[in-house]
Design brief:
alpha/beta; Rossmann fold; 2 domains; four-stranded antiparallel β-sheet; binds adenosine-5'-triphosphate; binds magnesium ion
């Protein structure tokens, strides 16, 4: 790592009265995987498509390897530097896998079609017609089209939406391989596990603005909250014992009891307190993760504005 691959400065996009992207600033280091998270309509796609020179910013700027996205003479260089999997990816229906990837390669003057098809396990399937592939395979062809020409920066807009768990994990492997080979990756996703596993840093965008940004672990510590032990049913005795011992308890409307603990040790303490009442119960343990961070960040915006995000 070391040098910076992407610098985004006050990037803004308006559609009439709507500010879809509102003074967004961040940097991405070379070789870093950076995830953009946020609810539907937050402005993720608009942000990445401005970086891909597909949409023109209203104000602000961004630099990819030093090339300004607002300088028309840089656009060619930027297109050569980047690989893109759009959110609404589609290829030419009546062409084969091979022909589609060839087309993408020709557009970039790239020659490594076979290598990329082999890397993605598509070589055997190269003669299949695109329109006849399953959704997951189509997406994989999209990734192949993004990777021809050895891009230095790859943008993946929701690469695993609609994929089965195994296909999703395969995609994660490709992203990890990209990172290993020093490629910078910007990924948008609605899957928190995906962001946790792949990214060095994440930014959560809410209504066009970055609400929080940083390393996943740091965000989880800062915003994730306590570990929760969820019990299907606890009787009054158990609840008062735990309250006596100083635990924070919440009874959910569905009757489940949530006990919050800060340290791992406390999980055992809670369970042994319950055993002292001859209650042999097994809670669901929900550890704080990016999902809690996400919900908390969005929740705070929700209450702050008193309306739905
Ligand atoms: N071409 C356009 N004209 C007008 N409004 C647009 C246009 N493109 C996007 N928007 C609006 O800008 C906002 C941000 O949209 P965007 O697609 O960037 O969100 P997103 O974070 O990618 O959402 P999702 O998670 O659903 O993909 C939305 O309110 C959307 O309706
Ligand atoms: Mg989007």
């Amino acid at each position: 790592m070391g040098s910076t691959a992407i610098v985004v400065e006050d990037l803004t996009k308006r559609y009439g009265d709507l500010v879809a992207v509102d003074r967004v600033s961040f940097t991405v280091d070379e070789g870093e995987v950076f995830a953009l998270l946020g609810p539907n309509g937050a402005g993720k796609t608009t942000t990445v498509e401005m970086l891909e020179c597909l949409r023109t910013p209203t104000s602000g700027n961004a630099y990819l390897k030093g090339f300004s996205i607002r300088d028309p003479s840089s656009v060619r260089e930027i297109k050569r530097l980047i690989g893109v999997l759009p959110q609404e990816f589609n290829a030419v229906d009546n062409l084969t896998v091979h022909e589609n990837v060839e087309l993408a390669a020709a557009a970039k003057g790239a020659k490594n079609v076979r290598e990329v098809l082999e890397q993605l396990g598509l070589w055997e399937l190269r003669k299949r017609t695109f329109s006849k592939l399953s959704g997951g395979l189509k997406r994989r062809v999209g990734i192949a089209m993004a990777l021809v020409g050895d891009p230095e920066i790859v943008f993946l807009d929701e690469p695993t939406t609609g994929l089965d768990p195994e296909a999703r994990r395969e995609t994660w492997l490709y992203v990890k391989q990209l990172k290993k080979s020093g490629v910078t990756v910007v990924i948008t996703t609605h899957y928190m596990e995906e962001a946790e596993r792949l990214s060095d840093r994440v930014a959560i965008i809410v209504r066009g603005r970055i609400a929080v940004m940083g390393e996943v672990r740091r965000l989880v510590v800062e915003y994730g909250g306590k570990t929760k032990l969820v019990f299907e049913e606890l009787d009054g005795r158990a609840e008062s014992l735990l309250r006596e011992r100083g635990y924070e308890l919440e009874v959910a409307p569905d009757g489940r009891t949530v006990v919050k603990v800060e340290r791992h040790q406390e999980i055992y303490e809670v369970l042994s307190a319950l055993r002292s009442l001859s209650l042999d119960v097994y809670p669901e343990i929900r550890q704080a993760g990016l999902e809690e961070v996400f919900l908390r960040v969005i929740g705070s915006r929700l209450s702050e504005r008193g309306e739905l995000v």
